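Are you able to produce any protein sequence you like plus the matching backbone structure tokens because I've never seen that pairing?
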Amino acid sequence: MTKQFSSFSPMAREMVDLSLTWQDRYWNAETGLLKMESDKDEDSMSTPIPFVHHIRETIWYALGLLQRQADGDHARALQAIQTVLHYQFDEPGKPYDGTWYRFLEEPHPGEGIIWRDYDPNWREFIGSSLAIILWDYETELPPELVASIDEALRKAIRGALARGLSASYTNIALMHAFLLDFTGKRFGNPDWVGMGEAYAREIYHLFVPNHAFAEFNAPTYYGVDLYALGLWRSYSASALLQRLGAEMEATLWRDIALMYHAGMKNMTGPFDRAYGMDMQKYASLIGMWIWLAAGRAFAPFPDVTRPFAHHHDFAYVPCYVAVGVSVPGDVLPHLKTFQGERQVERVIADDPRRVVSAWIGQRLLLGSEETSYSFPASDQFHPVTIQWTSEQGQIDWIRLLYRTNILINARAEKNRIVCSIIGDSDENPDVIFQIFTPDVHRAAFQHDRWQLAGLTVDVETNASLHTSIQADGPHYDLHYTSADIPLGTPIRFVLTTKEDS
């Protein structure tokens, strides 16, 4: 059944309108793809970066065009879909079989390296978007295009099954379970349906012990999780997926509420995976979900009329609107107003034991993670974080820069973070704290004290501060060396914060 734009909520219509208006300017009719700037970091917007043609974002745009149904949208959507299908790999036996090019400009991966030369996750991202297009708009598509989409879905499943995806890779695993269920029912393949439900059970089995996903507190990847659980809720005919998905979706929203400060429009750390430290400066997917749930005025999202980091994720809006938002009643107040100071202690894994701790204050957020000195799943890990509202009303921040040669245990409480670091090799590692504070004239750094605009941090440590401090605009990198500490002795930091009155 065709989903009419008029049936969307006012907030959903606003989001689709703004997202598509923003995407319209990137449409390249000659290539049939969106031509956007390649990605930028959160706070470095001044460096010119080349434009590239995005494949995944173009299928999101095509879905949005079918939703908006303005003059010319249908023809443009058909062109976009046909173009995206053209850039799928059809090479059985290759690790990238069934996935898609990320950009028109990138070379064929050949014997390339995963993540660097191709992204296997495009199977699930693009495949799930094609499933929505079929479910909502199949009657508006030419039969030959429907047949091509079906063939693309078969290729995506073929490659995904050969990959052997782990259920602990939460955001992709959730989409994968849906796609198996959807294609199994569509193509009359009970084996795929069975595998989809078995996969859903495995994801749920990993979730239940601590009611947490392996990718805990991830402002972007939580957004994909909510999208995938929305697929289970809205586009799956499986009673199992619907039931398990509803439970995990509600629990995930409650975790978001626990870690979110509506007044500062940010989640507190630590972040298992994050692209930035201020959700008002980059397109976080949770920011878009809060927009859809509570309204634009409450959303932690940048001004879309100006350049912003991770901008291409704004093209994801049509997928979110399609699955809809389902927020527990007790969560919605947390998305609109600050619900009071609180200490958070959250066990998120048992083997190895991982415990998140955070202090959420009026103007100050402290976050840390005890990892049992285990390796994180991603180099986007931010195990020690401090965010505060500066005198100018903006978010300033500090984070321990995760590096692959360190293992860390840390705990946060009111006005204090205690952390212990060991090296994973025979060399003593440097420990780097990255600080963002635009008021550079107020910044002063000593071995045992960091004086910042609106915040003072007293530092107790057995490490030594390097004589030089690397500064890049409002960013500072403070290097502490452990060269004088005996090998095997933990590097200790106690950070005590004091807000300026």
Remarks:
- The first strand starts at residue 27 and ends at 28.
- The chain is about 35% helix and 20% strand.
- Residues 342-499 form one domain.
